[in-house]
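Methods: holo model generation. Sequences were used as deposited, without trimming of termini or removal of tags, and paired with ligand SMILES retrieved from the corresponding compound records. Each pair was processed once, and we did not select among multiple samples. The sequence and zinc ion SMILES for this entry were:
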Amino acid sequence: MSKLKDILHIIEELGVVPAENTEKLLELLLSGESLNETDLAEKLEIRINDVRKILYALARLDIVYYTKDKHPEKKWWYVYSWTLDVDKVYVKYIDFLNKELQDRENRLADNTTYFICKKCDRKVEYSDALVTNFKCSRCGKMLKESKRKDARLERAIKKLKKELQKYSIFASKPAAPVSEEGETKKEKKAPAKKAKTKSESKKK
Ligand SMILES: [Zn+2]
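and the model returned the structure below.
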């Protein structure tokens, strides 16, 4: 998956339905430059208001931010330049996935654990057993824990874990910049000349 497709996938998963031109706008911002609203509108050939709509939707996810400068000619006017924070996209997503996973795992535990009293031949749900301190409310005997399956939740958990694994390389900021395409191994470029300096120069 290209980095652009990756980001589109993520924002959708995070709950933003990409509007028309979102992809193109992201592509422009992916260059790493910050672009002002007028430039973006011109490049995309759409109205500034439509540019803003897209940007505000992305800003709600906290993955784009703007800087504000005084307009060079018009007094009282400001120019808003927008930047995409790619690292944040991944950090946000991993955070989201972890929360979803935790939630599903808790639910799985609640849904699949139940208790039985053999003497009374009755089933007791987890939450009810908790109330009676895991004793049968009829005969007072200790309840026995049992498990049932929840295939739907198990599938959801499996999917979340897979997705987390896929993006785990972004969990902590990588020391070296990822290649432009965001695909680390695909194309083997000729190794750069061994730099003696320790600086990790960031490719534009
Ligand atoms: Zn009982």
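Residues 174-204 have pLDDT under 50 and may be disordered.
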